[in-house]
Amino acid sequence: MIITKAPRGTRDVLPEEAWKWVYLENQFREICNQYGYGEIRTPTFEHTELFVRTVGETTDIVEKEMYTFKDKGNRSITLKPEGTAPVARAYIENKLYAQTQPIKLFYVTPGFRYERPQAGRLREFHQFGIEVFGSKDPAVDAEVISLAMLFVKRLGIKDLELYINSIGCPVCRKAYRKKLLEYIKAVKDKLCNTCKIRVDKNPLRILDCKNETCQKTLADVPEIIENLCNECKEHFDSLKKHLSLMGFDFKVNPRIVRGLDYYTKTVFEIMSHEVGSQNTVCGGGRYDGLVEECGGPPTPGIGFAMGIERLLMTIEAQNIELPKHTPFDVFIVTIGKEADDFGVEFLYKLREAGISADKDYLGRSIRSQMKYADKYNARYTVIIGDEEIKNGVLTIRNMKTGEQMEVKTDKAIDYLKNGGI
Ligand code: HAM
After folding, report:
1. Ligand 1 neighbourhood includes 308 CB (under 6 angstroms)
2. What distance in Å separates the CA atoms of residue 321 and residue 148, rounded to the nearest whole number?
3. How confident is the model at residue 231 (pLDDT cuts 50, 70, 90)?
C-alpha cells in the first residue's frame, strides 16, 4: 500500500507556491468586490442527482468523470465536478430569488473530475468562479466577461484570446438540431468513434471535436450562430456591441459549444496558447433554464469559472513575477545563550506589535543565521549579543543597504516601524 504518494491527479501546494495562490485569491476577491459580487461557499459534495440533471446525463463529466459514492445512509453523493449547479441549488434553497435581483456571487472552490491527468488537467483542481442570477440583459453577459478579462489583465497576463458564441435557446436549438442531424447523417461514417456515439446522445458536442478528420468532415456544417431565433440573435449582437464598447478584442467561434448541458445563448472561452493542450483558462456562459431545472422559479443566469492551476501555468509560461513574498520582514540573529533567551522574548514583542518576524531554532552560527535571513529576503536583521544586552541596545541591519544602527531596546520597534515595517 503506497501512502507516501498523493492519489493520482492531486497535488500538494507547498509554501514556496502557496503564497501565489493567496495572492491570486486576494486579487480575485478584490475585483469581485469592486464589481459588487458577494462570496458564496457551497459544500464539497452534493446529491448526485443535482449534477445529472444540470450538467447533463450524456456529458463526459456525468458519464465518466464524477467521484460518486454511497454514503452510510445509502444516499448517492458526488464530489462537486463544477461550481455552478451547487450555487444554483443554494440560490433556490436559501430563497435568494425572493431578494432584490440580480444576485451576484463569486466563489473559490475545488472541483473533482476523474479525468486522465496531464499538464493542466487534474483530478482535484481549483476554480475561481462567478454567477449572476436574475437578469437577461446582455450587458450582464458583457460584465461577466469583462470581470474575467480585467482580472487576467491585472495579473499581467498577455495575449489571451477571448472566443464567444451563442448556442441559442431551446426553441432555436431544436430547429438547429434537426438541421445538424440531417447533415451529420450523411457523413456519419467519417466521424471518429466518440462522435458516432454523440450523434444520438449529444450531437452539438460533435462540433467541438478536436479530431482532425471530424473537423474536415464538418467543414461545411450548418453553424448554430447562423440559425438563431430573433431574440437570441439580438442578444448576441448586443453582447458584441457591449464588448466592443469596453474595448475588448474577441473572436466569434461558432464551434464553441461547451461540455455542460445547461448553457443557453452566450458561451465563451478564454484561451492561453502557452500551456499545451489544456489551454482553456476560463469557460462560461448563460444558463437561463438552470434554476428552473433544479426546481426553482424561472430565473436567467450567467457565469464563468477559471482554472487556478491553468492560470498559474500561464503566469509561469509568461515569466510574470508576482509581487515577491517574504515569509518574515525581520530576522533575529543571536549570539550566545543569554542573547538567545532575550531573542525569544523580543521576537514575541515584535509579533505582538504586528511585525512579521522569526529567529533561529537550530543553534546556527551567526554567519548561517545571516545567510538564512538573506535567503528568505528579510528586510532587517536584529543582532543581539552580550554587549547589546549589557548596554540595553540592539544592532539593526538594513539587509538591502547593509547599513547598521545601534538602537535603544525600547525604541527598536518604533525604529523598525519608521523604517517601513
Ligand atoms: P468548465 O469549462 O468545465 O466550466 O471548467 C472551467 C475551467 O476550470 C476550465 O476552463 C479549466 O480552466 C478548469 N478546469 C476544468 N476541469 C479541470 C481539470 N480537470 N483540471 C484542471 N482545470 C480544470 C465549468 O466548470 C462551469 N461551471 C463554468 C461556468 C460557471 N459556467 C457558468 N458559470
Report:
1. no
2. 20
3. very high
Ligand 1 centroid to 241 CA: how many Å?
Answer: 26
% pLDDT > 90, the chain? 92
Mean pLDDT of the chain: 95
Mean pLDDT of 160-180: 96
Amino acid at site 291:
V
Alpha carbon of 110 to ligand 1 centroid (Å): 10
Q: Is the pLDDT of residue 2 over 80?
A: no
Ligand 1 contact, 131 CB (< 6 A): yes
Average pLDDT over residues 47-71: 97
Q: What is the pLDDT of residue 3?
A: 86
Angle between helices 308-317 and 15-34 (to 10 degrees): 110
CA–CA–CA angle 287, 256, 230 (5° rounding): 60
CB 176 within 8 A of CB 167: no
Neighbours of 71 (CB within 10 A): 9
Domain 330-416 has CATH 1.10.4100.10: no
The whole-number pLDDT of residue 399 equals: 95
Q: Cβ neighbours of residue 182 under 8 Å, at least 6 residues apart?
A: none
Q: What is the pTM of this model?
A: 0.94
Q: Top-level CATH class of 15-169+229-317?
A: alpha beta
Residues of the chain with CATH 3.30.930.10: 15-169+229-317
3 state DSSP class of 168: coil
Strand partners, 133: 103, 301
Comma-separated ranges of CATH 3.40.50.800 domains in the chain? 330-416
By the 8 A CB rule, do 67 and 79 touch?
yes
Cell of 123: 483530478
Residues 6 or more apart whose Cβ sits within 8 Å of residue 273: 159, 161, 279
**Is it the case that residue 360 has pLDDT exceeding 80?**
yes
Residue 399 Cα to ligand 1 midpoint, Å, equals: 44
Tell me, what's the pLDDT at 306?
A: 98
**Ligand 1 contact, 142 CB (< 6 A):** no
